[in-house]
């Protein structure tokens, strides 16, 4: 086994442990920031680093919500997706699960989990990703729901949380064929709504433009001191996403300018446009000749 696979598996093991612990932590009345910081601190305690901020996306928020610094919001009886990532030297494991705190949406959660299981059973070298999408879509529809059509699974590369191939959650026509040794994340999103997400208003997650990471001399050329300070801190995360609350000082006006000027990429909260409730399940896998290793 090579370094890349070993480190991904190790990062995955850490996430497995944390997911178990979440059962006693993800409860109505908990502060969102407590949950996020618990996850991120545990990843560090166990010797890895967060690959992206802990996402806590509630009800029709599908993804990309993370609390802000000093956030007072509390978890209510809702459908909550916890999406977590850890990396060792840039080798990322990415996984997510859904808690139904309403006790009325268990089928929605089950649909995502079953779609993921069925998808995983198809994974091996040579399989076209469209086949995986087909299985996901069929499973979700058999539960009477829809996939979120514009959210996808993806490949994982060193320091890159979303790379090729794109793994659709429906049959999207011929895609690429999986290859032995590929590291991929499969993540069905299921909804009671029409199955489309769009950018919401809140943005707490950002990443650096890879060009800035490749050539950090560009940072010195930034004239505004506060902007320079943000970039100097952000470069610690290389091309991986980070939370605004991870920076010591990040006034919105400066952060927004850095986004406009192309230094930062922003990840707004993604909201199901028809107000549907969304569930998600996700695992990271290493593709093998005849099957896959599920690392999370
Ligand atoms: Mn994820
Ligand atoms: Mn993912």
Protein model, in words:
With about 300 residues, the protein is of the alpha+beta class. It has two domains: about 5-200 and about 270-295, Creatinase/methionine aminopeptidase superfamily (Creatine Amidinohydrolase), CATH 3.90.230; about 205-265. It is about 30% helix and about 30% strand. The protein has helices at about 5-20, 30-45, 105-120, 130-140, 210-215, 215-220, 225-235, 250-260; strands at about 50, 55-60, 60-65, 80-90, 90-100, 145, 155, 160-165, 185, 190, 195-210, 240-245, 265-270, 280, 285, 290-295. The protein has a five-stranded antiparallel beta sheet. Strands 1, 2, 4 and 5 form a four-stranded antiparallel beta sheet that branches. Strand 15 (about 285) and strand 16 form a beta hairpin. Helix 1 runs antiparallel to helix 2 (about 30-45) and helix 3 (about 105-120) runs antiparallel to helix 4. It is globular and about 55 Å long. The protein starts with a helix and ends with a strand. The mean pLDDT is about 95. One manganese (II) ion (MN) binds near residues 83, 96 and 187.
Strand percentage lies at 25-35%
Walk across the major sheet and give the strand order.
Answer: 8-7-9-15-16
What's the helical proportion of residues? Answer: 25-40%
Stated plainly, the CATH topology of the largest domain is called Creatine Amidinohydrolase
User: What's the SSE pattern?
Assistant: HHEEEEEHHEEEEEEHHHEHEEEE
How far do the termini sit from each other? 17 Å
CATH architecture of the largest domain: Alpha-Beta Complex
Radius of gyration: 19 Å
Q: What's the β-strand tally?
A: 16
- What's the CATH class label of the largest domain? Alpha Beta
The bound ligands are:
manganese (II) ion
- Spell out the CATH superfamily of the largest domain: Creatinase/methionine aminopeptidase superfamily
Low-confidence stretches: none
Tally of individual helices: 8
For the biggest sheet, the summary is: 5 strands, antiparallel
Q: Give average pLDDT, whole number.
A: 97
Shape: globular
Structural class: alpha+beta
Number of domains: 2
């Amino acid at each position: 086994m090579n370094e890349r696979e070993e480190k991904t598996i190790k990062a995955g093991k850490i996430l497995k442990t944390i997911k178990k612990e979440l059962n006693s932590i993800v409860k109505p009345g908990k502060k969102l920031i407590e949950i996020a910081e618990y996850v991120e601190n545990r990843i560090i305690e166990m010797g890895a680093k967060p690959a992206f901020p802990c996402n806590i996306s509630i009800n029709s928020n599908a993804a990309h919500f993370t609390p802000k610094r000093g956030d007072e919001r509390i978890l209510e009886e809702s459908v909550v997706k916890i999406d977590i990532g850890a990396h060792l030297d840039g080798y990322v494991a990415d996984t997510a699960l859904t808690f139904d705190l309403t006790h009325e949406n268990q089928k929605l959660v089950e649909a995502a989990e079953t779609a993921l299981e069925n998808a995983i059973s198809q994974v091996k070298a040579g399989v076209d990703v469209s086949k995986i999408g087909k299985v996901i879509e069929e499973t979700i529809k058999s539960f009477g729901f829809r996939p979120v059509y514009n959210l996808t699974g993806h490949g994982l590369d060193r320091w890159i949380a979303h790379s090729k191939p794109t793994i659709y959650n429906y049959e999207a026509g011929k895609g690429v064929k999986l290859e032995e040794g590929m590291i991929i994340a499969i993540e069905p999103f299921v909804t009671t709504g029409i199955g489309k997400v769009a950018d919401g208003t809140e943005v707490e997650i950002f990443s650096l433009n890879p060009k800035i990471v490749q050539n950090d001399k560009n940072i010195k050329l930034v004239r505004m001191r506060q902007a320079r300070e943000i970039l100097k801190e952000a470069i610690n995360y290389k091309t991986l996403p980070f939370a605004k609350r991870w920076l010591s000082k990040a006034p919105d006006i400066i952060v927004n300018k850095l986004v406009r000027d192309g230094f930062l990429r922003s990840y707004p909260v993604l909201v199901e446009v028809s107000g549907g409730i969304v569930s998600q399940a996700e695992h990271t896998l290493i593709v093998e000749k005849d099957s896959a290793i599920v690392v999370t």
